Amino acid sequence: MRRHAAVRMLLHDRSTTAGAVLGVVAIVFLVGQQLAVLFGLLTLMSALVDNSGADIWVLSQNSKSTSTAGDLPIRYVDRLAGLKDIEWAQPVIYSAAQFKLPDGTSQSVGIVGVTRPGLVVGPWRMAEGGSDVLLEYDGVTVDKLDLADLGNPKVGQVVEVNGRRVRIAGYTEGSRAFGPSVMFVNSTKAREITGIPADRCTNILIKLKPGVDIRRARAEISTLLPKTTVLTVAELASSIRVYNLTSTGIGSSFGFSALIGIIVGVVIITLTMYTNVLNRQRDFAVLRALGARQQDVFAIILFQALTIGCIGLLIGFFLLGGFLFGVKGSRLPANLPLWLPPAHVLFTFLMCFLGSALAMRRALKIEPASAFR
Amino acid sequence: MNTISQSPESEVDGPRSRVQSQGVSGTPVLSLEGVARDFSDGRVVRRVLKETTLDILSGEMTVLAGPSGSGKTTLLTIMGLVLKPSTGRVVVGGEDVTGFSEDSLASIRQQRYGYVFQQAALVPALDVLDNVLVGTAIQGGRVSAQTREKAISLLSGLGMKDYLLSRPQQLSTGQQQRAGIARALVSDPILLLCDEPTSALDVESSHIVLDTLKKLSRDPRRGVVLVTHDPRVFPYADRLLKMEDGAIVYDTRQVAG
Fold this sequence. Notes:
Chain A is α+β, with helices and mostly antiparallel strands and 373 residues long. In chain A, 50% of the residues lie in helices and 18% in strands. Chain A contains eleven helices and eleven strands. In chain B, strands 7-8-9-4-10-11 form a six-stranded mixed beta sheet. A five-stranded antiparallel beta sheet of chain B has the order 1-3-2-5-6. At the A-B interface, α1, α9 and α10 of A face α1 and α2 of B.
């Protein structure tokens, strides 16, 4: 009967119930949307590292990110390749360049030079064809999402990067990184474009043999190459994310937006539920006089809060699903990790509980004697 | 009102009420023994109900009358176990409930008491049948089929059969009050407490409600207490108590005795 009464009260006070549901929807959608975009950006930040196929990255000394300013001697590759625990070691060239647009202006791009024939750290998803297009001497790839920025070059079209002629050999799909558009090209052409000499590279990628302890291997490599930074893929990905979050203000921006969503939602829930209890003081007093204990009043308000939470979650997740579907394949990265929806549900229920706390406090103070006044 | 400083018992002014019921026609369903109630605004303590001793007997209708501020609602709420007395004992059905916890008192209210409030005080969100049933399962659990049948039977007996699923706001005030009476009776209470049940009713509806309450008071297991300031109610009383300034100043039983 408590639950029945709780639901009936919610249905009776439709406008305040709708207001509280709106508060929950605000929390679910605004917070969920902000987190989805944030996680999308986080994924994008380390996409190059996560999809490199390597276990360990060697960077210039004191590097925290896959900086385009990396500078390592190429002889390190041979020294590493000779170690018994290492399956392969490959140099990578990652450098900034200028892509010349049809109107004569330039657009910044990132050049990723990969070594033939392995094409390690090459594009991980092609829109059409395979990454073997990079075996061609002057072939480059551009991502479909970046086409508009680059003047919509067609496959086979010859374009200019840093004053060097290259040919669009294929389109990638989602093989992007955080920041400027990424163009993949073989290392020979990459050196030509970027001017990095043949005895230098920006990073070295290492694949360990199966069963090798990655931390021990990393320590050995650090000892072998003391003037470098040696990080596992997980460490580098984390380092890149932390670096970008703290140095660009993205973290605080998204954190603030999510916080605003939470505050707006909790305030709406609090005000509407509190108003509801104020309007229903006599009803609660009568229920108390009829035998309801404080815990019964608590149960009614809690059930109302949870019901509002459930309805708000359904609507909020429906909207969130629509948002994720809408931005799928767009330039706006959005990613909802599997653990996030259940965590978001728990968090939302907690916010509903907090939002209803003031109403509960008020309702629990209602004296049964007031039914007689 | 009398004003006291620190010790409520030592500095009470005015007459003390001590009315002893003989219980000739029934057994006491409720006994108040020297109950008094003080209210404080933080600076001054006021005694709004002076020491009162009173038995409510089964099988009779006790009418409690008096002007506004005379203390009748305070006495009613103490009888109704929704307000604790500052001093004295409250005995329900032979059991001293004075020191009982809030939860225990709530359970007694649910199982042994019936309330008819001023203007019915039905919950607008619930239909008539749910309003009658809500008290029976408000501490959790489901309403039994037997209780539901009883509620329907009570409502039918009060001429409310066609309004079971109506909302309170769809009813006249007289119909609301009859639904309120059905709610008070559904748990088969030993004590029915009515707070100005006719105050919002027209003459015809008042008589219907009062006739109903009078009939209910004939049950030898049940006592009925009706608080009013409406003199039209007095002829229905088996026993009339009048209050003034926080004390019972007139009791037909004492006068008869």
